[in-house]
């Protein structure tokens, strides 16, 4: 019974485990890289590193994700598995400069 409870306790961690991790940097209100290629059918952990002093909001309607990242902080955003295609994202607080796209191949 203790083994079953231990396994059940790990399920949330297993459910969010990503196949790979990629870093997206925010600096001077721009995302870098602006184009990020990821494989189709894989879960991806995006580590968003906001190097600006002010907060930014990662937002993507196509990915159904939005997350505020305080200045000089990092945040994790899990995406996928995705079908091949282009998934634009932007920074809602600096939409004129903070733009990018995730290309799934």
From TrEMBL:
Q: Does the keyword Nucleotidyltransferase apply?
A: no
Q: Which UniProt keywords apply?
A: Signal
Gene3D superfamilies per the UniProt record, alphabetical: Cupredoxins - blue copper proteins
Q: Which residues form the signal peptide?
A: 1-17
Tell me which residues make up the EfeO-type cupredoxin-like domain.
4-104
Signal keyword on record: yes
Q: Which Pfam families match?
A: Cupredoxin_1
Task: Provide the protein name.
Answer: Cupredoxin domain-containing protein
Biological source species: Nitrogeniibacter mangrovi
């Amino acid at each position: 019974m203790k083994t079953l409870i231990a396994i059940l306790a790990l399920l949330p961690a297993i459910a969010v485990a990503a196949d790979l991790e990629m870093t997206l940097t925010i600096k001077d209100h721009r995302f870098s890289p602006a184009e990020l290629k990821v494989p189709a059918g894989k879960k991806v952990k995006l580590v968003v590193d906001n190097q600006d002093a002010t907060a930014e909001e990662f937002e993507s309607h196509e990915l159904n994700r939005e997350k505020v990242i305080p200045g000089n902080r990092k945040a994790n955003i899990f995406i996928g598995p995705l079908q091949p295609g282009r998934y634009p994202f932007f920074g809602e607080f600096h939409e004129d400069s903070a733009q990018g796209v995730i290309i799934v191949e």
